[in-house]
Amino acid sequence: MTALKAWPNAVCHVTMCAMTDGIGIIGAGVAGLHLGLYLQQHGVPHTIYSDKSAEQVARGRMLNTVAHHNTTVKREQALGVDHWDLREYGYFCHHHYIGPTPETPELRFPGDFEAPSRAIDYRVYLPKLIEDYTSRGGDFRVQPSVGPDDLAKATEGHDLVVVSTGKAGLSSMFPVRRDGMPFEAPARLLCGGLYHGITYSDPKGVTMSVAPGHGEVLEIPMYSRDGFVTVLLFENVPGGDTEVLAHANYEEDPKAFNDLVLDKLKTHHPAIFERVDHASFGLTGPEDVVQGAIRPTMREDYAELPDGRFAIAVGDAHNVVDPVIGQGANSASYSAYTLGEAITEDPNFDERFCRTYAARRADRVNAIFDWTNLMIGLPPAPHLLQVLGSMSASRPLADEFTNNFNYPERQWDNLATPARAQAFLARHGLG
Amino acid sequence: MTALKAWPNAVCHVTMCAMTDGIGIIGAGVAGLHLGLYLQQHGVPHTIYSDKSAEQVARGRMLNTVAHHNTTVKREQALGVDHWDLREYGYFCHHHYIGPTPETPELRFPGDFEAPSRAIDYRVYLPKLIEDYTSRGGDFRVQPSVGPDDLAKATEGHDLVVVSTGKAGLSSMFPVRRDGMPFEAPARLLCGGLYHGITYSDPKGVTMSVAPGHGEVLEIPMYSRDGFVTVLLFENVPGGDTEVLAHANYEEDPKAFNDLVLDKLKTHHPAIFERVDHASFGLTGPEDVVQGAIRPTMREDYAELPDGRFAIAVGDAHNVVDPVIGQGANSASYSAYTLGEAITEDPNFDERFCRTYAARRADRVNAIFDWTNLMIGLPPAPHLLQVLGSMSASRPLADEFTNNFNYPERQWDNLATPARAQAFLARHGLG
Known about the structure:
2 copies of one chain form a homodimer. The first copy, chain A, has helices spanning 10-18, 30-41, 54-59, 70-78, 86-89, 122-135, 148-154, 254-268, 270-273, 328-345, 351-376, 382-391, 395-403, 408-415, 418-427; strands spanning 23-26, 46-50, 90-98, 107-118, 140-142, 160-163, 189-196, 205-211, 215-224, 227-236, 282-283, 289-292, 297-298, 302-304, 310-313, 319-320. Chain A is α/β, with parallel strands linked by helices. Chain A is globular and about 65 Å long. Chains A and B meet through α1, α11, α12 and α15 of A and α1, α11, α12 and α15 of B.
């Protein structure tokens, strides 16, 4: 064709599409690994760059307090990394406790999942997936994190760069969205830890305990390095009675720390406190606590590199959310998996690719961000309180709310506005 | 719940979601009818408002030169309106003719669909669907078109308004998108008509005949009021040798008109001319010709009405495209069907609903708009010429291009940029 004359760089284009080094994945958290495992499964050339080896992750401090809901478990099954039988390692429901207020009595009510969720300590989970990945021939490179300025050079030869970690300031490559920082300051000060000495609820589930005005505790049955233990994630309202937990130093005085935790459970979270075995209760170890705060932030989906290639943000590099409803890791896995699908469907890694992929994941990822922020907003939105209160009077309502932890976009369809909450209640004959 | 106090207007919200009068659909073209049939099938209350009765449509002038590709036929099957057996009424391929240029010889090559397309005159098609709809109990109201100012009043009681016609200036409710008017002036001046006296190609297909510098002819085997006839849609480049057809007046001198058409076919479109039976050739009647021009326009997806309800644009109200690749009706049907799905999934007709629906249809609808505009752009993009030329050398390439008339977003994945076109060719071992 004469038109061929018009293509001096045709060869480089063709090379691009032959994908010399394929995809460069920065970060080996759940997003990086789920994407790597997906691309491996579909024969797409790629490399995972991690700043830690499997051993370093396994021997390190507790990373987070993550639960995987069943939609994420289904992705793990598809990726061939479903190593923990749900009958033994899964949990099946949410137990809700809402403390009394001047106007309302204490409320206790359960909500069921249609299929189980699962919480595995990431110091067990991530090393196992790294082992799966490398044993299947994956190209897993351990090297120091690169910053935004070194990224292009460090990923030379890759046709697309996927940034799945916020480490080394990489997030800053993706500007915060106009609506991407809804809070002036963190809405909760966190104290998450692993504990011995708490009998699991029956049926085995996560307890979401709310102390009005002071914050929440998530009690999660988790499998960790020492076997089955319990996560207590204190979500403390700044200035509330439990904020002290975000600053308490375990290593200085382990007994005082454990006593303080027990005291706050006793005062604000009886539905958990009543299952404590005082003889054996305590943090499982000095490395098993995370304290701090997360400022919810949503960033742009992609950025163009100086050489014209594109970098796509997934997981923490794209957005961070408060752990109050345990959606962060599920959001990261979803973003990674859908990116894998997009890569196999359209290996043209230009701005159209980035925009189409961003649109594909937007509904769920944005819903997780908005729903999480609604849950920690202060004062709580009246329509949220009404829904939570109504759940105590309607098991079907509570079950739908609980199962929608798997479908955050559906949850947001029910909660996004007061009118939507009313329609949600009306559909259940309430409100 | 005490929070209930916070909802003086709870009742109206609940009413909203009970959908008093449900959906108000303005317009009874393919979009309005496919949406109405979908909602009818799913038990969603609604009304179709049309400015014409089935009889008026059946007895009227030719409306367009529409073909339905198989993805649209599949929607017709799902809606129970697949009345025209594809073995008899369908067509199976595209026959391409590209006239010679100083640098390139004449090219002739076919491309196959995986499943047949079908062209039924809308004066047969629409009345049949109106009959289906009303015989199934549909609320079909014939009344004069309302303009933008009367729309809210005319649709009072409906929870959502769907505007599927641009008549009476309704399009103006939806502002033109910033990138929504890519041409200063129409790129083609049209003369579409129904003709006797052209033997169908074998295998039965649409012939896309290109006269470089002058425009295209689409020859479509269509079933019309008088049975099987042939559409000749002349897409005339302004200033080109065939522009005269856009202005020729059939009624003034039918023989002169037919002779002019024959002369232009003979000069520029031999692949069609050679199948003409001169004894019987001619326009099927004075009402069977449409002349004019379409200025491609893409508008915003929705608008808020003064009373806070929302109106969503589908079909011509949302965008109009040149008929050169016969995608307009398929786009309208797709928009209508996906809107029906969205309505049954989330009956909260607020801005979130409109935004989520808009995102859902965006990839295909935008691809149709962009691809169509690439096809009529002047001068033709070199990468488009290269792909068309390469199709003559690669049957798999021609078949993929042809079948992608069913999947415009995939076509655009292959054509959106020169680099993508190179990757498309490279995937077929070309370029």
